[in-house]
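Subgroup meeting minutes
Present: P.N., E.W., G.H.
Scribe: E.W.

1. P.N. recapped why we're keeping a running log of single-chain structure predictions: easier to compare across weeks, and new members can see raw inputs and outputs side by side.
2. G.H. added today's entry (461 aa).
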Amino acid sequence: MGNMMEPLAVDLLVIGFGKGGKTLAATMGRRGKRVVMVEASDQMYGGTCINVGCVPTKALVHRADTRRPDDGEEAWYSQAIGAVTDLTTLLRGKNFEMLDNIDTVTVVTGKASFVDSKTVEVSAGTDRLTISADTVIINTGSVPVIPDIPGLRFSRYAATSTDMLQTSQLPKRLAVLGGGYLGLEFAAMYRRFGSEVTVLEAQPKFIGREDDDVAEAALGILRDQGITLLAGSRVTEIRDGASGATIHYEQDGHAHTLETDTILVATGRSPATAGLNLDAANIRVTDLGAVEVDEHLRTSQPHVFAIGDVNGGPQFTYISLDDNRVVADQLIGHGKRSTADRLAVPHTVFITPPLSTVGLTETQAREQGHRVKIASKPIAQIAAMPRARIMEDTRGMMKFIIDADTDLLLGAALLSIDSQELINLVALAMRHQVTASELRDTIYNHPSSTEALNEVLANTA
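Output recorded in log:
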């Protein structure tokens, strides 16, 4: 990197090689702008999603689902970790090439720290590089939260999801702290690999944001797989032993213990701002530690934007990608796009089968005063969805919440094979005000999961 006296002057500086940042860097670079992308680790080119997030976890879910009863548990898991590592290495290289092949874009590996609002110092070992930029994008993502539980932080048996993806040894007993998206996905995956899995959730209910019928259908599938789900369990202490840890927790006013080999800490992620020296740039943060932004993702410094997890918005890769669109519209477009434009954003929990949701739940719709119709059916009873039988998975259900006065969809919860694809169609219909009747009476190809809409939407109550 070398030591330089004069700052390197560029048009755009992006701090963090995540989805939104790399897309914006490529867009501006192809327009001939001088762009520097700073990434703290050469193991994170491409960001969290491809390296330690969506891609490797979903690839492991797939490999867990394809394990046959006579496949050795530890050997299958070790092979799966190796294959997923190969995949992420490939994608990391392709992401680097995507920017490195653009003449005006330079990738710099090192840690960035603001000197002032337009100047950043990048350090790698003893090397220092100072960069001044007309526009700065903070895209540093988020980091796992380690709760303040006695004995947890320094336990030899505690691991984050990133740690789990980097070890080829399958835990015999896995305890998951936190029953959110990440916790349930890892619980289901490791159970399929052969671990004994217990999930401890402090809230009184698992999947508490969904209607009870949807949550129970999903939890029933997890229980049927042999996963122990402990809701309303407050972990009070972790004690390390010679070959494992003892988790002390309270549930229903009673003290309990749980012996485990590995503790997956899945209690959420917080914006990664440590070391950025935001104070030097007079960039404000929220009470929760996120970089404060307006609806156009500008920080308190108008030429500095924050995109992705670091701005405290929804922690999804596709939100980071949309953040990129909002900022690009500010820099090279009409400046009209904003985060307020986001309607009917879908979400998926990649258990097997996946649970995908969009819009309002039935409970929320009724609380907001809508007169609703409900179209709901178990997958096993949908005659018009032979794909579920072809794929040998008829578990789950579909539920649509419909405004009785307008026939517009207010929300949906799809617990089924292919739901991660179906939910995008439903979200698009909601955004463009396609009625439930039109979705019900549309021609879908066969055999597909989509054709279930013909039947499910014909059964309203």
